[in-house]
Amino acid sequence: MPITLEMKTTDPEEMKLAVRYWAMSETGEFVEKVMDLVPFRDITHSGTLAAHVRTWCRAYDENLTCRDCGTYLEVTSRSAV
To answer: Whole-structure pTM over 0.85, yes or no?
Structure first.
């Protein structure tokens, strides 16, 4: 997975959903469509789900690094990957 996740939640269901949200195939395509991940608890819209996932974890693209320090750059949306 070219995305590294830093979890900010300890809820196992939220962590599992965040991993599914960011999961990518070897060809660089997202494994699941966001619309297929809802409903989740009281979340029924894909746009709302994306906002919640951002509160549960930080995502870093392993293909984008800071030219000064070499750390992976944070991405806040799947379209930015």
So the answer is: yes
